[in-house]
Specification:
The complex is a heterodimer of chains A (197) and B (67). Chain A has a single domain, classed as NAD(P)-binding Rossmann-like Domain (Rossmann fold, 3-Layer(aba) Sandwich). Chain A is 36% helix and 17% strand. Chain A is built from 6 helices and 7 strands, in the order H-E-H-E-H-E-H-E-H-E-E-E-H. Chain A has helices at 8-15, 27-38, 71-82, 99-103, 117-130, 177-196, and strands at residues 19-23, 43-47, 87-91, 109-112, 135-139, 152-156, 159-163. Chain B has 67 residues and is mainly beta. In chain B, strands 2-1-7-4-5 form a 5-stranded mixed sheet, with no helix packed on it. Chain B has a two-stranded antiparallel sheet with strand order 3-6. Chain B starts with a strand and ends in a 5-residue tail after the last strand. The chains are: A alpha/beta (197), B mainly beta (67). The A-B interface holds A 24, 26-29, 113-118, 120-121, 124-125, 128-129, 138-143, 154, 156-157, 159, 161, 163, 165-169, 175, 180 and B 6, 31-34, 36, 39, 41, 43, 59, 61-67.
Chain lengths: 197, 67
């Protein structure tokens, strides 16, 4: 496919007027948010109830001195250090079918960045039923290392799924920075493609 | 009947089938599935009731943990 050509100035100008919602501020969410902040996304709405822990640092965009902080606040702080022009709205909340349409109601695109499959299903059902037509960019299959070429994007209507669709997190299949970062980057890349055309 | 399953044409030697029958026949064993018939979500509790027929566009996405 032919790559759309735009200068960074043009890209920034378009993205500055856009809002992306990111559901979850862990491995996928923190890395996806930072990538989008760097390219000049106007507004990022992030929601997560968790705090940064030592075990998150193998993949999540946080720093050792942020252990114990609320993830959404740590992420907001990190984005402000990278690109203070991005408006970050941080919700320290557990997302559910009732608050998702409220929190992400005016987002141009929603990124699913949860850890658990049950939560991924919950947001897919919520968007399909309560936010018809809204584009949802999901991540599924990020665990382990290696096997670059198994990671892909599939589309089903307004839902896109990035990942290998196969490798589930487990005791001997941890989610780690390289593969999680690839999928988070794919999600951010797809958000750009959707918003920029 | 012929249906489209995950963007591919598939033939079945019957005129209709439920979502449950399709999942069993195609061996979709993952627990967390997003099933859509012609873009409409079918929830898990409706797998036995929801009927797929000729020409339907069916999408089955499985979701797995990790992020």
């Amino acid at each position: 496919m032919q790559m759309q050509k735009k200068s960074f100035e043009e890209i920034r100008t378009i993205l500055a007027c856009k809002t992306v919602g990111i559901a979850g501020a862990g491995g996928l969410g923190s890395n996806c948010a930072v990538a989008l902040a760097r390219v000049g996304m106007g507004r990022i709405i992030t929601a997560d109830f968790d705090t940064v822990s030592e075990s998150n640092l193998n993949r999540q965009y946080f720093f050792k001195d942020q252990v114990g902080m609320k993830k959404v606040l740590a992420l907001k702080e990190n984005i402000a250090r990278i690109n203070p022009e991005v408006m970050v709205e941080a919700f320290d909340i557990k997302l559910d079918p009732l608050n998702i349409p409220q929190i992400f109601g005016d987002c141009d695109v929603i990124v699913e960045a949860f850890d658990l499959a049950a939560m991924k299903l919950m947001i897919a059902e919520t968007v399909l039923e309560r936010m018809p037509g809204r584009i949802l960019v999901m991540g599924s299959g990020v665990a382990g290392y290696g096997n670059n070429d198994a990671i892909k994007t599939v589309k089903s209507g307004n839902i896109f799924i990035c990942g290998d669709q196969e490798n589930e997190t487990g005791e001997n299949l941890p989610p780690l920075a390289p593969r999680v970062g690839i999928v988070a980057g794919m999600q951010a890349n797809l958000v750009m493609e959707i918003l920029l055309g | 009947m012929q249906i489209t399953l995950n963007n591919r044409k598939e033939e079945f030697d019957r005129s209709t089938m439920t979502v449950r029958e399709l999942l069993d026949e195609k061996n979709f064993t993952f627990k967390m599935l997003v099933v859509k018939i012609n873009g409409q979500l079918v929830r898990k509790e409706d797998y036995e009731k929801a009927v797929i027929s000729e020409g339907d566009d069916v999408s089955v996405i499985h979701l797995i943990s990790g992020g």
